[in-house]
Design goal:
heterodimer, A: seven-stranded mixed beta sheet, four-stranded antiparallel beta sheet, B: seven-stranded mixed beta sheet
Chain lengths: ~110, ~120
């Protein structure tokens, strides 16, 4: 199984700050990484596909980068609605896996 | 408009078989490249991928649960199914189904169905 390690587990920020969330794969997975946002008591929402490709309807402050084993989800100027949990998921292997998540919380 | 909705028993006892149904609209599982996946989430914990089924009836399972999982589909009625045998309290979770084009990312998710395993 491909293991995805997300860091940090929790990130405390104030609105207006820009942040970067990390996802590291246990082996090279090209750009087969996808990012999701999950707000409390809601289903996950796809934010970014294939490491850096944008999704229709997602605010432009969300962006992704990386390839191989190291990936980053960046949020430019965090807004109050962004405080939630973020997960990465790999599809390089047909046996999909998710990272454990990073919780973005209000400082 | 793509929608998915999960249904299940709500509560069941240890050792029983959990049967889940995903009823969807706005796409077809007979379309080349289309797939449906099942993902679960225990309360307060992270997402765990369980299984995917593809348009050509190819199936993939989480190795840690593989012996207990069976995924299937009814293309005519736009439904996908997941069975988990011999459940125990560790299977208590919210279960989601989601569309997965080319079995890559999950772009549309159902609202989830809570399942409790308790004696």
């Amino acid at each position: 199984n491909i293991v995805l390690t997300q860091s940090p587990a929790t990130l405390s920020v104030t609105p207006g700050e820009s942040v970067s969330l990390s996802c590291r794969a246990s082996q090279s997975i090209s750009t087969s990484i996808h990012w999701y946002q999950q707000k409390s008591n809601e289903s996950p929402r796809l934010l970014i596909k294939y490491a850096s490709q944008s999704i229709s309807g997602i605010p432009s402050r969300f962006s992704g980068s990386g390839s191989g084993t190291d990936f980053t989800l960046s949020i430019n100027r965090v807004e109050s609605e962004d405080f939630s949990i973020y997960y990465c998921q790999q599809s390089y292997s047909s046996l999909n896996t998710f990272g454990a998540g990073t919780k973005l919380e209000l400082k | 408009q793509v929608t998915l909705k999960e249904s299940g028993p709500g509560i069941l006892q240890p050792s029983q078989t959990l049967s889940l149904t995903c009823t969807f609209s706005g796409f077809s599982l007979s379309t080349y490249g289309m797939g449906v996946g099942w993902i679960r989430q225990p309360s307060g914990k992270g997402l765990e991928w369980l299984a995917n089924i593809w348009w050509d009836d190819d199936k993939y399972y989480n190795p840690s649960l593989k012996n207990r999982l069976t995924i299937s589909k009814d293309t005519s009625n736009n439904q996908a199914f997941l069975k988990i045998t011999n459940v125990d309290t560790a299977d208590t979770a919210t279960y989601y189904c989601a569309r997965t084009p080319l079995a890559h990312y999950f772009d549309y998710w159902g609202q989830g169905v809570m399942v409790t395993v308790s004696s």
